Amino acid sequence: MSNWDPMNYLNEEPTPQCLLRVKKDIAEFNAQPPPRLFISPEESDVTQVHVLMLGAPGSPYEGGFFQFFLKFPPNYPLSPPRVRFLTTDGGRVSFHLHLYNCGKVCVSTLGTDGGPCDWSPAQSLSSTLVSIQSLVSDNMYSVDYVQYETIRVAVCDQVDAALKEDAKCPPAFRKVILDSFLESYSKYEDAIKTRLQTGSKLISTAQYEKLLTRLQSLKEKVEQKKEAEAAAAAAAAENEN
């Protein structure tokens, strides 16, 4: 059993001290959320937290929607939370040397990088997520590869899941994803068209063309959804009057 994987510890019962500290961390996060970070704790167990992280502007990860799942251990904050990276296309894509395609997040803060664990009880949910967030800005792979997979997996797949209201996309994240997608759309399309003009040694023209078609189709679907929601809201308001 992988001791880093939160999925293996879902049935762990938190101690009263753990629960108190987790609720404090969540309240502090909600009071001052770090930029491009969103959380959605499970209603039935707040020690299980879904995380949405947006890729840093100016990086190949820009505009990507990266999901993580976090579980606090019973002795938190004496031990760090366990974290799994979920945006891997079913284990087929690795976005960073420290974000494995199996979902393992390798950072010293969590004690998962093979060296000494840098965890301190003074650290919190916010500080933990910010340290992980730095990975989704510091590219160690080919820019072409990361940018392509970001748009394919961390944008298109995530938008598709949000549109379908898939369980893989927590309800709290769906509006964030769809709104951010429309706001950033021109950047996604420009990035693909630039690669189509300049070419890439790693990604074929056919792959970029297929991705562009998918991106444009998703934009149309998101806009249709927004229009339907606006019409429904207007009709509801009219009925109230």
UniProtKB/TrEMBL annotation:
E.C. number: 2.3.2.23
All copies of domain UBC core, residue ranges: 17-186
Any one GO CC term of the record: cytoplasm
Coiled-coil intervals: 205-239
Record GO biological process: apoptotic process; negative regulation of apoptotic process
Keyword Acetylation: no
Cellular localization per UniProt: Cytoplasm; Nucleus
ATP-binding is among the record's keywords: yes
InterPro entries: UBC, UBQ-conjugating_enzyme/RWD
SMART domains in UniProt: UBCc
Molecular function terms, GO-annotated: ATP binding; cysteine-type endopeptidase inhibitor activity; ubiquitin conjugating enzyme activity
Enzymatic class: transferase
UniProt keyword annotations, A-Z: Apoptosis, ATP-binding, Coiled coil, Cytoplasm, Nucleotide-binding, Nucleus, Transferase, Ubl conjugation pathway
Record-given protein name: Ubiquitin-conjugating enzyme E2 Z
Species the sequence originates in: Rhipicephalus sanguineus (Brown dog tick)
Lineage: Eukaryota, Metazoa, Ecdysozoa, Arthropoda, Chelicerata
